[in-house]
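Morning, I've got a small favour to ask if you have a moment. I owe you a coffee for this, so here goes:

…
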Amino acid sequence: MRLPAAAQAPLGRRLATITSVRELGVYRVITVDDKHAPAPAPGQFAMLAAAERWGGGEDERPFLARAFSVARHSDGASQFLLEDVGPGTARLCELDVGERLWLAGPFGRPFTAPQDGRRAILAGGGVGIAPLAILQDALEADGVKTEVLLGFRDGERVPGAELLRGARVASDDGSAGHHGLVTELLERELAGDGHAAVYACGPAGMLEAIRALCERAAVPAQLALESGMACGFGACYGCVVPARGGGYLRVCVDGPVIDAALLERVEEHAGAHA
């Protein structure tokens, strides 16, 4: 099978209207009407900014646009999973149906399909579960079975698991599912059947643990990194991560989906907020 190739972003940014808002615990899922852009491939992201009041402080200094993985796409509409973790995301979480935001993208390298008949294991943490939803849709549409393992900090975030189908959940506080880390679920899964390909997105610590675990088990893994970005298309070098063997990779253009074998390590700034 083949997953969709990376879509090429139109030049410039565009205004898009929010058509629905859904709450999943502390998370908000917004659907945006975006018919003037190509459909994103699983793992690609967009840069979002509120059309109004996009700034902070007494002089309302503008915020930089924020990078968000596309969680789903259908019939010209894209979904994004939001969590209020600071002033910029707080403003985005305030937006309601009928309000508009600036959108640029889709950007970045997407996930690629599993090879050699390997089953797909999707492992996500916190708000980093977003790109795994569109990936699950694409894989299952092609008849590939997916195992979904999701980890959350607490019960307020566990409802985020509803974004994907058939998820097994781990929670740090024991409020739902396995009391512990999602990486513990993954380790057990690989011990039972290692003929798998792992797809992961989440906090840096989780991604580094998955990178190391898959390396030891000789299991291929693709990691969707999330990092603070000023541009989203490779100009500013603000999102670099160390590559194995030396040098750096830019998350926005060499990723966000990067083969784990190409990474020396996953640093703290390159993981999604959980």
